[in-house]
Amino acid sequence: MLEYVGKIRDIARRLLSENKVDVVIGFRQGTIPMMSEPAVVSRPEDVDELYWDYNCGINLTNYLTKRTDRIGVVAKGCDSRNIVTHIVENQIKREQLYIIGVPCHGMIDRSRILAALDGQEPTAVVVNDTEIVVTGPGFERKFNRQEYLQNNCATCIHRNPVVYDELVAEKVEEQKLDDRYADVKKIEAMSPDEKWAFFDKILAPCLRCYACRNACPLCYCPTCFVDESRPQWLGKSIDPTDVRTFHFLRAYHCAGRCTDCGACERACPVNIPVRLLTKKLNMDVEDLYGFEPGMVPDVRPPLDVYRPDDPGGFIK
Amino acid sequence: MMKGLLEYMGTEPGRLHFSWISSAESTKFVEVANTVAEEVKALGPAKHFIKEKAEVA
Q: What distance in Å separates residue B39's CA from the closest CA in chain A?
């Protein structure tokens, strides 16, 4: 993946010096390992800030919403699908964008690696084709890369960007998976009481920090329903009922729009697998409407349109 | 899909019902209301989405 860095910088330098775009949005290295952060570059002399590695899991589409300038944006498979969603939902115009497509190998799961280190502080993390080598004061640990991919990357079937103006490398081979929804089906097989208890348990640590919402490229409403006070849609406390209502509604607002980019789960400070909810909706949208969000530029999401043949089995 | 997600999160099937009844369909209204009442009674009192303590505003 490191070979992408030079290519991204070259393209960004060219775009900025030829005045094709006003800014380039990409990633730069963070101040601590495994924390690459978004960067907005507007001068050709600053492009060497840009970087690419296995920690670029943040969805850059979040930084495009309602911008009015011309933007070069670095996009993985999932980012590109969210860009499509943004275009469909009138949050940005295609003409404003120069999409630098990045065929993605999957991002590594920082939280699981940190958990495995059990409190040891990593100072350097190097990822090669098969391994993640983590070093720190007095220790070196190796992890299998495929096993420590972010969960959504391990079940991803759209690693290559769906829209782009230029690719930084050859497309990568897409994964062939037996069942992307095994975790969802496992929960579906439980009894209602077990399901309730299961979600009580996974939602218990939620602090209502809304990091999942803020990281999500779909959550661009000027005022989110959780912040509304007239009317107040739901309680603002960490009462289990309020927490559950929040997670239920947050997920439902993403129905038919979510690309499973994993930004929400990555952002969660208490490691709640919030994707279990959006994934269930993704599965249902696929089953009921045969729709995958962000794949075609001019089709509105299924819950946004009425068709006479919409499934209505739930109506008596 | 909303019903699907609610049931996925542990709401009992049969707790939530949807129907489309015209103002002219009085018999259908009675039928549906009766089935809903029966099915919900069979499930017993709701255990979920209830706050036990009053929320302090």
A: 13
Four-CA torsion A185, A191, A192, A198, nearest 10 degrees: -70
Among candidates A197, A280, A316 on the partner chain, residue whose Cβ is nearest the Cβ of B5: A280
Q: In the A/B pair of chains, how many CB contacts fall below 8 A?
A: 69
Structural domain span for residue B15: 2-43
Closest to A71 in 3D by CA, of A143, A113, A21, A118 = A21
Cα-trace Rg, chain B: 15
pLDDT means per 10 residues, chain A with 316 residues, are 88 96 95 93 94 94 94 95 95 95 94 92 91 93 94 94 94 90 94 94 94 95 91 88 93 94 94 95 93 90 88 84
Chain A residue whose CA is closest to B53: A239
Is B48 among the domain residues? no
Partners of residue A73 on adjacent β-strands: A25, A99
Task: Decide if A196 and B9 are in contact by the 8 Å CB cutoff.
Answer: yes
